[in-house]
Records
---
Amino acid sequence: MQLAWTPVANVTAAEAVSVLQALGLEYGAPLVLKSDNGSAFKSGDFGAWLTEHQVVPLLSPVRVPRYNGACEAGIGAAKRRTEYLAARQGHYLDWTTDDLHAAQRWANEASYPGGFAAGTPASRFAARVPINDIERDTFRTAGLQYERELNHEACTRGDALTDMLLAIHHRRAVRHVLVEHGYLDITRRSVPQPLPAKKCAKIK
């Protein structure tokens, strides 16, 4: 479900918090917020908003865009829809707010990413059960506990708790608790690796 496809004047924490504040009032605060390592998402103001609303941050590893693949793919699809709609109105490179809103409605109400039987993103989102305060607190407590266990195991092995290792443990803890509490389903499939050029040349 694409909750926002909104133009902003600058990529700042203030702009991000403004969008999140509006979405939070309408839909409630998220349980986990996944983002890249942009300065806006690592600022004190942004962190304060997350803390105030008990939202667990989930930052991607530095310089690993594929970790954020679903988000990147969603942005790419939103851009293509907007370009198509703008072109139909005769302003391919000059998007309007109407184009953005139409692209968002298209994604939410006229697409079936999980198959036709699964319904549209809008219908699935409408059927969700909102997270209550007890569930939110339980989730955060379980995540912190699992993260402490990972840190303790690392210290027992003699590993230095560097910022990178702490970040890895945080991501592992968030993923573990999301799955354990039934908020996240993971489907694995084999992904064929690209063949080297030399090997391709030998294939007849």
---
Amino acid sequence: MADLREQRVCIKFCFELGKTAAETHQMLKQDFGENSLGQTQTYKWYKRFKNGRTLTDDDDRSERPSTGTTPENVAKVRDLILQDRRLTILDLCSTLGLSYGTCQRILSEELNMRRIAAKFVPRLLQNEQKQHRLEVCRELQQELQEDLNFLSKVVTGDESWVYGYDLESKQQSSQWKSPFSHRPKKAIQVCSSERRQFMS
């Protein structure tokens, strides 16, 4: 497109010659053709020069200051998320009285967080359970090294536990994660407090 500033200079020149806005627009169309300013823009700049404007450059654009994204609000959102990473944006809005867009902007831009669903794993073991399994495996390995017929002496049994499961959706298990924190884990089946044992 032709230089817009050049067309504004032409509009200013036409105004000073006493041309009307309509005449100015027609002259721009004749000179610049398809690249000329539209009627609305031509009339707007003509009115500016008529009101005393002398510059033909664009006005400096000042972005609207954000009143919600303050250091205090950022700290409040951070504290709430660290207390409970499963809070939703709507929860934050109702607790802090901030708009949805403000909370979303604080989480994504200020805290650099995003909501991630928990990774499914077969079981979630405590450190004591992991250590116990390791010790049992080492003992069995030691027994096998000392007695090659060890496996023939093993008597196996079976038991089945039937649990009641508290189902949780993927959305319910998701939580906020920073770039440096680990992805949360979730057992494929999370047992409730109810269970029954069957022996065989």
---
Amino acid sequence: MLTIGQLARRVGLRPSALRYYEAEGLLEPAGRTEAGYRLYAPADVDTVRLLRRAQRLGFSLAEIRALLAAWRGGDLDNAETLALAEGRYLALERQVTELRVQQHELELFLQELTGAEAGAAQSAFGRLVDRICANPTAELPSHTVLDWLTTYNGCLLSGPAAQDVLAQLRGRHIHVWREDDAYHILVVGRDPATAAALAELTRLERDCAAHPNLIPELTDDEEGYLLVARGDNAFILARLFLALEHETP
């Protein structure tokens, strides 16, 4: 058996953190000494490590309780815990997409600044590009995004019917931004083939049973074609178009 101090040292935490886990119903002592001090089983080392990992991954306390219950029951890979993990993955994908869209908008803004002022703005942008190029963060290729959609969603965009559509949209110049709880995707230019591809993509998404709460709307814009995506899974289209822009047609 381990005292609270011994367990804390094994897992790299303070005893107060273990007492907090106990107060939240996440960790229970296996017993107590005659003097009333907590005692923990050696297996509690792994319990706390799983608990900390779940915290790092952003699971809520309620979700961690469910994960721990499944783990203690020897059934961590059941359907419920898999759904929890996939839900957390989707939440992170939404956050990543929001950051990528902000990065995309900021890149356009910096380009506007360098076009307006050739002095300080140009040198500042040059320094920024040098830092970014020294440690590039490449955009995910669209086939990787589609592989993910297939694995987790069974999305129609990953099927053979969408291949010609996506091929037509690769390498197109786009602007992506978020406004009024929707992602706006502007495909610049007036190409009938692009318009047809966007119309077909919109139809596929409306018919896609994998995420029925993704609502795409396609309209004409003075600069090209504007696709507005609303709903919990709207980030999927934003992420896909950011990937398509970086690919060769």
---
Amino acid sequence: MGRHGGSHAKERAAKPAKAFAKAPAGAPARKQPKPPAKKTVWQLIRTGLSMGLFGIVLALMIVAVIIPKVTGATPLTVLTSSMEPGLPPGTLLIVEPVDTNTIQIGDVVTYQIESGQPAVVTHRVTAVASSTTGERTFTFKGDNNDAEDPPVIAEQIQGRLWYSIPVVGYASTIINGPYRAVIIPVVAGAMLLYAAVSITIGLVAASKKRRANTRRADASLAAVISDAPGARDTPGARDSSGAPDSAVASEPA
């Protein structure tokens, strides 16, 4: 029997859990995730120049090689100054097939110097005439020449100027010259290699960026969890008597 005539238990109220635990003195501060590295000005300039150069080369290949091949036009290079200032030496001419009945004064036309021979001239039409038999003849003159060319018949006409590109004619002469079989595959291979390297670099950079973003997200999530209320509570906290907070103590009988 106890002093109060029996044994009974008193339930001790549990201590409220601590919301936050103070970090021990001298504990190192948690490292903050580093912001993503930004490209330097030089990297941006280099990337822009590289992409611009690739775009220019690709555009020139299209207008100087692909379009003429697809449309049946002929690329020619201006070698003399007879058509200056509009068509100086080195200009690439793209000459398209033409119906001679549609040729008018002022057109720039390419014709054979001698019928059936490969040598050609590209000059401006200054006169169109018809013979008694109905055959049309054309008179040409270079914009920078003083004298007109001898009359030309329809069979000598090779085509009419479609468009021109300054300076590129020299490159076209090399590409379409005796080394064409070697130059075109080399240029095409170099462009494909450049494209492959650029794509690979882009994929690697994108992969690194994704991994960096994942690490930053994981670090941020860990920081949020560690700072959440109750995350740092001491489990199984005991009171001054050494008994767990939730334990039931009995008075001696």
